[in-house]
Amino acid sequence: MKEIFDRIVPAPSLTEVTANRIRDAITTGDLPLGHKLSEQRLADMLGVSRSPVHDALAILQSEGLVNISPKRGSYVFTPDLKEVDNICEHRALLETGSVRRAIARNKDKLVAGLQSCVDEMEEALRVNSSTDYTRGDLRFHETIVRASCNRSIASAYKRTISPLIALRTHLFTIMNANIERSLDEHVELLDACKRGDADLAAALLEDHIGHLIEAYRQELSSQTGFEDAITASR
């Protein structure tokens, strides 16, 4: 039967909209790591009641972006070094599995998407825009996951990536000190995908994410105030 209607896309709930706004504020650094979150203050800023804010914080807690303590209240997450390792390891498992699946089943679309991201990153480096570079970097890795065409993987990745974006924002200086090496690693990964070498692509991804772990550990270890913030928020 001929379709005569466009599919209806349900509008997001007020809780979802609220969670999206708070998530964006955390990942961009407007709400920094360790920041105390007042439900009433957030409600006033967003122009909503406390109920959707309360539910939104519960969603963000499940994503690892917010820590909620019955006695101390709610805070933007402040991970210790072990948590950083766990987050990055989870990401590596999802991305290496995705790139293998994408090369086997969706190689042309994968390569086209990654090439677009690399072009964006090269242009950002040329004009010295770290913000645009980061955007292209994130889109590169999201492209790998989307090309796997596996909704479960994509959903798990979405829950994992927000804390990493927030961490990258917090560790802005050291991450961008290695921006040229980062670009080289993305180009190598693109070349491996073009050749259809899934084993090499997965190995390069693991190495790339391993370098991120090294950077996180180095910076977190060097920030004496960061450990104090971790203790204060728990």
Structure description:
Helix 1 (14-27) crosses helix 3 (50-62) and helix 4 (81-105) packs antiparallel against helix 10. This protein is mainly α. The chain folds into two domains: 14-19 and 31-77, Orthogonal Bundle (Arc Repressor Mutant, subunit A); 81-224, GntR ligand-binding domain-like (Four Helix Bundle (Hemerythrin (Met), subunit A), Up-down Bundle), CATH 1.20.120.530. It has a three-stranded antiparallel beta sheet. It has helices at 14-27, 39-46, 50-62, 81-105, 107-126, 130-147, 151-170, 172-177, 179-194, 198-222, 224-232, and strands at 36-37, 66-69, 73-76. This is Transcriptional regulator. It comes from Roseibium alexandrii (strain DSM 17067 / NCIMB 14079 / DFL-11) (Labrenzia alexandrii). One of its GO terms (molecular function) is DNA-binding transcription factor activity.
